[in-house]
Each structure stands twice: as structure tokens, then as C-alpha cells.
Amino acid sequence: MPTSSLNPHLPFGENKNAEWYGKDIISVKQFKREDLEYIFGVAHEMRGMVERIGTFDLLKGKILANLFYEPSTRTSSSFTAAMERLGGSVIPINEVKYSSVSKGESLPDTVRTLECYADVIVLRHPETGSAAIAAKAARKPVINAGDGVGEHPTQALLDTFTIFEELGAGQVDGMTVTMLGDLKYGRTVHSLARLLSLFKVKINYVSPDILKMPKEVMDEVAVKGIPQAEFGSLEKVLPETDVLYVTRVQKERFEDPADYEKVKGAYVIDPIVMKAAKKDMIVMHPLPRVGEISVDFDDDPRAAYFRQMEYGLYVRMALLAMVLGKA
Ligand code: NCD
User: Fold this and answer.
1) Which in 11, 44, 98, 244 has the greatest CB count within 10 A?
2) Ligand 1 pocket: which of 94, 124, 152, 252 to mutate (most atoms <8 Å of CB)?
3) What count of other Cβ atoms lies within 10 Å of the Cβ of residue 261?
4) Could you tell me the distance, in angstroms and rounded to a whole number, from the CA of residue 289 to the centre of ligand 1?
5) pLDDT given at position 102
6) What is the pLDDT of residue 52?
7) From the CA of 186, how far away is ligand 1's center (Å)?
8) Strand arrangement of the beta sheet that strand 63-68 belongs to
């Protein structure tokens, strides 16, 4: 990493030859291990800049269209904050029902419209594959902020950055990561399992029988030579776990509400359960939580889920700077 990869004074405003200039971010399958080292280096610098000066002009004059067809608090507001901390501005479309989408406009047409006004589009949509469809229609970069039960690549990047910053980059190889909860519908774990397969980790999946990690994801991870094992309860694997990644049961994705009722309270992490875990491990959660981590655990130093949100700001700043040719 050079001393600074952020250059607001590049000729013509942006480096069109930079590797990530103009690229879409659709799936974690795009990333190699070296890419992560680069992104996390830039994110680390962003953290330093925010801590020292708060807001700066790296993306001055650039505009982000934040197009959300599904609810969001963290992803949407952290992309907004990321753009504004870099001196850019945002067109927020959170309530698609007030946009032409409610008149029946197609996703490709909406994206073609927004790219007339914006330099980059962040999209969250309920259908798997929608981000790829939008990226095909658009000339400007599209960033996938969650496509149904498919992927959530920027979340997986910030999750992995959290692990690097909290436990040390050198520690990732050899680590045991346990994913808990709704592994079937949780797009964050689909992306995270794939991304972590770039490292020499061991992955445990703990879920109710009807919410197991999809075979497609497990097969892709297996090809990378990663040991994986499935469990119905946490007991056996908690003592060896370095990262416990807890997820919400995705109520909105169930076809039969009775199935949701059967599994909604399946696991609860609290101080008693966590007595069996290591002292130097971390508990993560993409949030929102709906009871699967007790608030009594929040003051435990191992509770990393609030810090995780902050890391998301720096990773999203890095990604915006990269696709706009400024990092
Ligand atoms: C997640 C999502 O939207 O997939 N939230 C997030 O982006 N932080 C997880 C969830 O909704 O459970």
C-alpha cells in the first residue's frame, strides 16, 4: 500500500485506469484475496481520515443514487454517510412507492433514468439476480446492497473487515467461524461464507433443519478446500468458535407463516450461553436483531455488532472511492 492511495488532485478528476474504476459490485465472487487486502487498506485509511477530519472532498461533485426497494436502516444510511463524508451528495429513493416504480416502471428503465443524474447507483431489491440485471442496463457502476436471498457483498466485505480489525489480519487463517440462525434465507451469510473461503478458515453452520445453508453455497465453499460442518445446536461448537456470526430469522421470506412461528426463537445468545465461549472471540450480527441476542450481552467486550456497523461506513467509503476512480 502506498502512503496514501487517496488523491483528490488527480488530473481530469479521476483515474480511469484504476483497477476498480467504473466496475459494478454485484457478488463476492468477484474478489480475490489481494483485492480484500487493497479494499481494507483503503477502508483503514478512510477510518483514519474520518477520525482526524470527519468530512473531506475526495468525491466532491459526485452523486450517488440510493435506490431501495426493500427496508433498510444501516445499509442505506451508511452509504449516504459514506458519500457525504467524501464530499459527494445523494439522491435517496427509499420509498419506491412514491417513485415511477409505482406506475409500473421496470428496473432497467429506473436505473437508466437514475444514471442520467448520478455517477453511481446503490440498489437493494427483493429479487435474486436484480443487481446483475440493473448492472447490465446501466453504464454507470451499480453496487448490490442486497438482492433478495441472493447476496449482500458490501455487508460481507464489512464483516470480513470487522474480523481483520478486531482480531488481527494475520489471525484469519486458522480461525473457526460459526454461523447461526437463518442460513437459508440470510443473504449476508451466503456472501460471507463465499468470501471467507478465500482464507484458511473452518466454518460451522448451526440452524434449524428447515433453515440450512443452501447446498449451492456449501458446494462453492467446498471447492476451495474449506472444512464445513452442520449442526442443530450451538453447544458443541461454541467453545472452539473465534467468530460467532448470528443472524435474524428472515420472517419476510417465509412462504408459510406457520414455519416462521416454529423456528423464530430457536437460538438466543445471552451471558449464560456465552460462558462456554472463548474470552478472545467476537460475536457479530448484521442487524437488525429481533431477540436472537439478548441486550444483557451488549456490554460484553466480545459483542462486536455495534462496532461492526461503524466499520461498514469505512468499507463503503472505500468502495465508492474505488469505483469512482479516486482510490
Ligand atoms: C441484513 C440484510 O438486509 O440482509 N441487514 C443489513 O443489511 N445490515 C440482515 C437482515 O435483514 O437480517
Assistant:
1) 244
2) 152
3) 11
4) 9
5) 82
6) 97
7) 8
8) 89-93, 63-68, 120-125, 142-147
Q: Nearest residue CA, atom 8 of ligand 1?
A: 286
Determine the atom of ligand 1 nearest the C-alpha atom of 155: 7
Q: What is the pLDDT of residue 97?
A: 77
Counting Cα atoms < 13 Å in the Cβ hemisphere of 82 gives 28
Nearest ligand 1 atom to the CA of 287 is 8
Q: What would the grid cell of residue 158 be? A: 464489512
Residues 6+ apart with CB under 8 A from 232: 206, 207, 208, 209
Residue 249 near residue 211 (C-beta atoms within 8 A): yes
Residue listed under C-alpha cell 461492526: 308
User: pLDDT for 292-310, tens place per residue?
Assistant: 999 999 999 999 999 999 9
CB of 316 closer than 6 angstroms to any ligand 1 atom: no
Amino acid at 284: M
Residue closest by Cα to atom 1 of ligand 1: 286
Q: Note the CATH architecture for domain 153-309.
A: 3-Layer(aba) Sandwich (3.40)
204, 178 contact by CB (below 8 A): yes
Segments making up each domain of the chain, as ranges: 28-152+312-323, 153-309
Residue written as grid cell 466485505:
157
CATH of region 28-152+312-323, choose from 3.40.50.1370, 3.20.20.70, 3.40.50.1980, 3.40.50.2000:
3.40.50.1370
- Which segments in the chain show pLDDT lower than 70? 1-5, 7-12
Whether pTM > 0.90 for this model: the answer is yes
Nearest to 68 by CA among 107, 16, 11: 107
> What pLDDT sits at residue 101?
85
